[in-house]
């Protein structure tokens, strides 16, 4: 029983790490640009398939280095061409646009790579379980969690200590003032969008190594990321981080006792948070309107 | 009678003549009556979304949930409770509306994109319930094993099961009732208040209007309409589909409303007609229809954000 519980908590943490990566990217874009990026799951899939395509030539490590930046570049182009004209208009429009974009990406990947699942080979030594006792902790899972921790730490350092990060945080609070101070907010939004998409691409590569690839895999991760943001509190990246881990572990633990509800428990959690604390765990009062 | 009033009467008459004669002009144009029925039902759903989106200015992206609840409510009623078409419609509507009233209370304090996010997430709850609770709902396969029943009007029995035209007119009557109620609400002082909230929420608040309560009422009402449309949809297909609850269905409804023209009472119906016919056509000619629908979304947002009737010059009149 302890082992089963431990297994599911580990699972929950790993899933939670994915949620965190996805949700942080979504949250970055949402906070600065007021855009709910429905196509975020699509970018995850693009990252995964790019990794799948380049792995035979440059190996898994090469793919891990190359795929997320490439995804971010695609994201930059999309932002420049499609999303930029919508800033300042009713958020409804960017929502609908990215919603359509998600359709195009899903169908496009199916067209290019086929509807069947595709495996991505990971290095042999990572695929081994670390001990027989705890068979489920493979090197890859440990590696994933470690990488996510490092990336998230880097992101927070970037936001706290670099000039760009400080501008992004300032823009989240009051974009108009930031613009009035002579900062190029178009550039800022583009860069911020690219960082968000980079995270989606990275989670795509990691997910591909763990689960293989399917054109629809992005949509399944989108809802939990939304919930992570709502539970953590809109406007707070730390909140998003906390929310992602929380729902990951909660659904992992529910899987032990009542597997059918492992998905539902996230929604229950969200309802409870909204009832008790409408702004989310770490959300600020002004952020919800 | 002013010229403006006369113009509106003419437009209204034209709309109803087109709808009343649909079974006669659909077939020569290469359509079929069942397609017109679907347009009516989905059009009603899009109008219900627009009741909230276009007239209260609140973006719900999870309305498919209440549509789907209506469908399951109607289906379950016919399957387990009673073989009565009116009762199934009533219970379907109640299921969607009551669920909307409860969740609406949790949601209304949020605004803008956050409102949209919370509505999406809560909408998905019902999708998962329908998906997981296979013993009741049929799970992934959807709810089957029920069919709409002949209407007993006391003096005559109307067969709406095998006659597509009879069923079309039955749906048209239901549609007319719902639309009449909707129009009545929008013309009432309450409806004017909704529009005031849309135009300037802060000013409405300063005038002493309880904004949250009004938005909650609008949300609940629109969920009742949505449940009604969903119940009708279950009767159209004799089938309830879990994908009818999914947020991608919500996106379709919002798209219909936007494409037709959000500020116009009849816009969403036109949007639904274009959307349904286009989707019907695309899915018959290409397997990549999803891309085309996606592109439609992108093109409408970038080039026709005010919708078909917005271009003509609708002014948000009910």
Polypeptide structure, described:
The complex is a heterodimer of chains A (289) and B (318). Chain A is mostly helical. Chain A has one domain (2-216). Chain A contains eleven helices and no strands. Chain A has helices at residues 2-33, 40-83, 91-113, 124-127, 139-161, 163-173, 175-180, 185-211, 217-232, 237-257, 264-276. Chain B has a domain at 33-251. Chain B is built from 15 helices and two strands. Chain B has helices at residues 3-20, 22-26, 33-53, 64-81, 85-107, 112-132, 134-137, 164-187, 189-199, 201-206, 211-237, 247-260, 267-285, 289-303, 307-312; strands at 151-152, 157-158. Chain B is globular and about 55 Å long. In chain B, 49% of the residues are buried. Classes of the chains: A mainly alpha (289), B mainly alpha (318). At the A-B interface, helix 3, helix 9 and helix 11 of A face helix 6, helix 12 and helix 14 of B.
Termini gap of chain A = 45 Å
Mean pLDDT of chain B: 85
Question: Structural class of the secondary elements of chain B?
Answer: mainly alpha
Largest beta sheet of chain B, briefly?
2 strands, antiparallel
Distance between the termini of chain B: 18 Å
Summarize the largest interface: chains and residue counts.
A-B, 45 and 41 residues
Question: What is the 3D form of chain A?
Answer: globular
What kind of sheet is the major sheet of chain A? Answer: none
Number of helices of chain B: 15
Helical fraction of chain A: over 70%
- Total number of beta strands of chain B: 2
Strand content of chain A: under 5%
Radius of gyration of chain B: 19 Å
């Amino acid at each position: 029983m302890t082992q089963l519980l431990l297994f599911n908590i580990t699972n929950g943490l790993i899933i939670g790490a994915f949620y965190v990566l996805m949700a942080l990217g979504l949250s970055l874009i949402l906070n600065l640009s007021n855009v709910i990026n429905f196509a975020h799951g699509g970018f995850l899939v693009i990252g995964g398939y790019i990794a799948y395509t380049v792995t035979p030539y440059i190996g898994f490590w090469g793919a891990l280095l190359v795929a997320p930046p490439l995804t971010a570049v695609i994201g930059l182009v999309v932002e420049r061409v499609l999303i930029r004209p919508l800033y300042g208009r009713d958020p409804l429009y960017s929502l609908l646009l990215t919603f359509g974009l998600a359709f195009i990406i899903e169908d496009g990947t199916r067209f290019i790579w086929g509807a069947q699942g595709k495996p991505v080979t990971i290095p042999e030594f990572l695929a081994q379980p670390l001990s027989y006792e705890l068979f489920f902790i493979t090197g890859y899972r440990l590696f994933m969690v470690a990488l996510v921790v490092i990336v998230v730490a880097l992101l927070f350092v970037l936001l706290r200590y670099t000039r760009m990060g400080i501008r992004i945080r300032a823009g989240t609070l009051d974009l108009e003032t930031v613009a009035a101070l002579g900062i190029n907010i178009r550039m800022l939004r583009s860069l911020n969008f690219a960082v968000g998409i980079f995270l989606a691409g990275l989670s795509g590569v990691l997910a591909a190594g763990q689960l293989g690839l399917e054109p629809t895999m992005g949509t399944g991760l989108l809802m939990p990321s939304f919930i992570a943001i709502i539970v953590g509190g809109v406007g707070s990246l730390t909140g998003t981080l906390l929310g992602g881990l929380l729902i990951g572990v909660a659904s992992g633990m529910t899987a032990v006792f009542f597997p059918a509800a492992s998905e539902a428990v996230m929604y229950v959690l969200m309802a409870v948070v909204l009832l008790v604390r409408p702004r989310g765990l770490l959300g600020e009062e002004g952020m919800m309107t | 009678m002013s010229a403006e009033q006369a113009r509106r009467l003419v437009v209204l008459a034209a709309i109803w003549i087109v709808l009343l004669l649909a079974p006669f002009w659909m077939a020569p144009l290469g359509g079929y009556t069942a397609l017109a029925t679907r347009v009516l039902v989905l059009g009603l759903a899009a109008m219900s979304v627009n009741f909230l989106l276009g007239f209260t200015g609140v973006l719900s992206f999870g309305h498919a949930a209440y549509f789907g609840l209506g469908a399951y409510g109607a289906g379950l009623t016919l399957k387990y409770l009673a073989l009565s078409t009116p009762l199934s419609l009533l219970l379907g509507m109640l299921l969607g509306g009551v669920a909307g009233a409860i969740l609406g209370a949790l949601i209304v304090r949020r605004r803008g994109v956050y409102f949209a996010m919370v509505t999406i997430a809560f909408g998905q709850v019902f999708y998962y319930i329908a998906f997981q609770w296979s013993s009741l709902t049929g799970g992934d396969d959807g709810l089957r094993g029920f069919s709409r029943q002949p209407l007993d009007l006391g003096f005559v029995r109307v067969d709406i099961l095998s006659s597509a035209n009879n069923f079309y007119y039955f749906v048209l009557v239901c549609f007319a009732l719902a639309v009449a109620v909707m129009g009545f609400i929008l013309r009432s002082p309450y409806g004017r208040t909704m529009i005031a909230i849309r135009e300037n929420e802060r000013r409405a608040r300063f005038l002493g209007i309880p904004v949250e309560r009004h938005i909650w009422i609008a949300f609940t009402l629109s969920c009742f309409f949505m449940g009604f449309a969903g119940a009708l949809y279950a009767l159209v297909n004799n089938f309830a589909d879990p994908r009818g609850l999914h947020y991608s269905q919500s996106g379709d409804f919002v798209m219909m409303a936007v494409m037709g023209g959000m500020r116009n009472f009849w816009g969403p119906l036109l949007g639904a007609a274009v959307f349904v016919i286009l989707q019907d056509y695309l899915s018959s000619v290409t397997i990549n229809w999803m891309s085309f629908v996606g592109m439609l979304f992108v093109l409408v947002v970038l080039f026709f954000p005010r919708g078909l009737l917005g271009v003509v010059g609708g002014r948000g009149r009910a």
